[in-house]
Amino acid sequence: MSTLKRCHNISDLRRLARRRLPSPFFHYLDGGSDDERSLARNTAAFDDYELMPNYLVDISKIDLKTTVLGRTIEMPFFCSPTGMSRLFHHEAEPAVARAAAKFGTYYSLSTLATTRLERISEVCTGPKMFQIYILKDRELTREFVQRCKDARFDALCLTVDSVIAGNRERDKRTGMTMKPRFTLRSLASFAAHPGWWLQLIRHHDFRLANLTHRDTVMSDAHTSVIEYVNSQYDRTLNWNDVAWLVEQWGGPFAIKGLQSVQDAQRAVDVGASAIMISNHGGRQLETSPAPVDCVATVRHRWSWASRYRSRDRRARRPYDCRSSPASHPDSDRRRAPASRNRGRRARF
Ligand SMILES: Cc1cc2nc3c(=O)[nH]c(=O)nc-3n(C[C@H](O)[C@H](O)[C@H](O)COP(=O)(O)O)c2cc1C
User: Does residue 261 contact residue 293 with C-beta atoms inside 8 Å?
Assistant: First the structure.
């Protein structure tokens, strides 16, 4: 039985990754920002929920199909974008894209991928989405939109929670860079993983495949992800820019990384088709609430606002970012302390 077949849950997979990967890459994959409280809370929050079963219904045929961003998918979840997949496995993004297609769900390709988006279009027969950033280099963002249209991507998702790189202390300790930086400390870990080395010799192209044609992008330099993000992401980004991108794309469009009711309303206002409630897996802004705790209130607001969007001709106008968030009638409320939530029943 292959090692993978002996993995029965996420903890087993995590243990296997720890064994297989040099430590800088394992910790990049596994870590969160700062004290990793959001990371821990993201998973712990699920323990606060119970699902109330209803028995004596015919379950001989179970249909989990749902529609996401205009495409029917076979199960109510999909593959989120993950940068630099080649660090974790030599088959990289195409392997995940093929698996997603096999199981009938979306594959999302990150801007920071190690595979060109045109290649994903060739190998992925299922629904596919491109995760985009609005970078300082707007021409590059515009170019991505055109390439995605040409490569027939189904949807675009704009990640908005990464304008400033999360303070990932594990990456700082391990010297996690792209390409790998070989310090004495990391060398010991690389030496202990000959399997990874063997693959490195055969598949050594770790470049950010969709960005390397631009001079501004880290090409040969050993730049850390944090350094790259801080130099390229546009900190002036606001809702008018999102409206601009929605317009440029003109197709199914999700905003990834929102959490508040207020922002959900704004997403509706700029014409987004969907939002992904997320805190980037606790990898960005420490102390942001667990996404699962935000779902019920945001969903309620989204359904309500979307119902009126089609009637409101102003909905597609650029958002007036001068209006103060505090003046918004639905300013967000913080989640109740964890102890008060214990044993809640999920009502999503
Ligand atoms: C190794 C790794 C790389 C990631 N790279 C990206 C990325 O390039 N773009 C992005 O939007 N999210 C990225 N994410 C975040 C995930 O897409 C996702 O938001 C996170 O795993 C948490 O899941 P959730 O959003 O469903 O809560 C990455 C996550 C991990 C673990």
Answer: no
pTM comes to 0.86
Q: How many domains does the chain have?
A: 1
Whether 27 is catalytic: no
Query: Beta strand pairing status for 71-73 and 66-68?
Result: antiparallel
Q: Which atom of ligand 1 is nearest to the CA of 29?
A: 1
Which amino acid residue places its CA nearest to atom 25 of ligand 1? 278
229 within some domain: yes
Cβ–ligand 1 distance for 280 under 6 Å, the answer yes
Q: CB 214: neighbour CB atoms within 10 A?
A: 15
In a domain, 123, yes or no: yes
Q: Whose CA is nearest to atom 28 of ligand 1?
A: 82
Catalytic residue among 89, 90, 193, 280: 280
The answer to whether residues 132 and 157 touch, using CB atoms and an 8 Å cutoff, is yes
Distance, in Å, from the CA atom of 244 to the CA atom of 252, rounded to the nearest integer, reads: 14
- Residue 68, ligand 1, Cβ within 6 A: no
Instruction: For residue 159, report the distance from its CA to the centre of ligand 1, in Å.
Output: 10
Query: Is 142 inside a domain boundary?
Result: yes
- Residue 165 makes CB contacts below 8 A (sequence gap 6+) with 225, 226, 229, 230, 233, 284
Q: What is the crossing angle of helices 23-30 and 10-20, to 10°?
A: 150
Report the CATH number at residue 153: 3.20.20.70
Q: Which domain holds residue 167?
A: 12-53+67-320
Residue closest via CA to ligand 1's atom 29 equals 82
- Ligand 1 centroid to Cα of residue 312, in Å, is 33
pLDDT string in tens for the chain (348-residue length): 678 899 999 999 999 999 999 888 999 999 999 999 999 999 999 998 999 999 999 999 999 999 999 999 999 999 999 998 988 988 899 999 999 999 999 999 999 999 999 999 999 999 999 999 998 889 999 999 999 999 999 999 999 999 888 999 998 888 776 555 667 777 777 778 877 777 776 666 777 889 877 755 554 555 666 667 677 888 899 999 999 999 999 999 999 999 999 999 999 999 999 999 999 999 999 999 999 999 999 988 777 777 776 555 444 443 333 333 333 333 343 444 444 444 454 443
In a domain, 260, yes or no: yes
